[in-house]
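Regression test case RT-17, inverse folding.

Input:
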């Protein structure tokens, strides 16, 4: 099948969210949604998610799934807000439990924070499948950027999250806790083993130098031939050396601390205090 794919680009976080619709029906999934967050004021707003909601309603679509490719470190998920407005089940990779254990300790969440993935409606493992109406989606576990990264192969389209970027920008960083450049290399090889004509939809675009427009759709064949980090059959030894050296120069994402606390809870904020106020933590010298 060839699903209909509608992208939504958020220039504040360079994130691309997707509405993926079955070609001959009204069922859809939403992948990697964004809740807008102003770090300086600590205020959220739903403008990005509302654009998705408006599209879904205008097209008369039914949301079956709200999918996360991984626990994002650069934007907050709008999954609970979308679920409240549109329905659907929230799904993520089963290794979310690894992320919850790691960052539950970093953020000193205590025993009340459940580390079993129960905040999500579905935990996917390698080889699992799901349906968007009559359209089947298959799940690939593609760790490296994080231990819980998933690629969703839906018809002739693969939604790779942060594993791959556009060919002129390369690949994801691997220096977050639990990341591994060797694992990323192996994961990318699995994606590149899909048919050359498979459409690849990336989770971010940072507009590589020399390119005038943002872009988010490519193909397996283009990635194999042109990706500046992994193309032309680059060896694992060369890739790991390049990726690790590059990662050592990168700063932490601007929204990593609020994003992780919220996204490991399936997009929910931490519990409010007795006055109804919600607080996010800033661990000092932990990241």
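Golden output:
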């Amino acid at each position: 099948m060839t699903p209909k794919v509608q992208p939504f680009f958020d220039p504040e976080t360079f994130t691309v969210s997707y509405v993926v619709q079955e070609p001959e029906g009204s069922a859809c999934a939403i992948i990697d949604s964004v809740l807008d967050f102003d770090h300086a004021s600590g205020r959220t707003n739903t403008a990005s998610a509302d654009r998705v909601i408006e599209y879904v309603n205008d097209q008369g679509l039914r949301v079956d799934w709200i999918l996360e490719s991984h626990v994002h470190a650069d934007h907050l998920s709008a999954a609970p807000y979308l679920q409240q407005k549109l329905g659907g089940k929230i799904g993520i990779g089963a290794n979310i439990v690894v992320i919850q254990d790691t960052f539950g300790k970093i953020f000193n969440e205590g025993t009340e924070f459940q580390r079993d993935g129960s905040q999500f409606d579905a935990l996917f493992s390698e080889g699992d499948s799901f349906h968007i109406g009559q359209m089947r989606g298959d799940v690939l576990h593609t760790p490296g950027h994080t231990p819980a990264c998933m690629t969703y192969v839906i018809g002739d389209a693969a939604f790779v999250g942060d594993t791959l970027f556009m060919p002129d920008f390369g690949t994801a960083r691997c220096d977050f806790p639990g990341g591994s450049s060797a694992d990323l290399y192996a994961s990318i090889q699995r994606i590149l083993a899909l048919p050359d004509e498979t459409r690849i939809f990336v989770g971010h675009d940072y507009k590589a130098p020399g390119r005038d427009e943002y872009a988010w759709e490519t193909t397996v064949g283009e990635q194999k031939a042109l990706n500046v980090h992994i193309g032309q059959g680059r060896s694992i030894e060369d890739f790991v050396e390049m990726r690790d050296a590059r990662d050592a120069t990168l700063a932490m994402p601007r929204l990593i601390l609020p994003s992780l606390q919220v996204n490991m809870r399936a997009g929910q904020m931490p519990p409010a205090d007795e006055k109804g106020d919600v607080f996010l933590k800033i661990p000092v010298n932990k990241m």
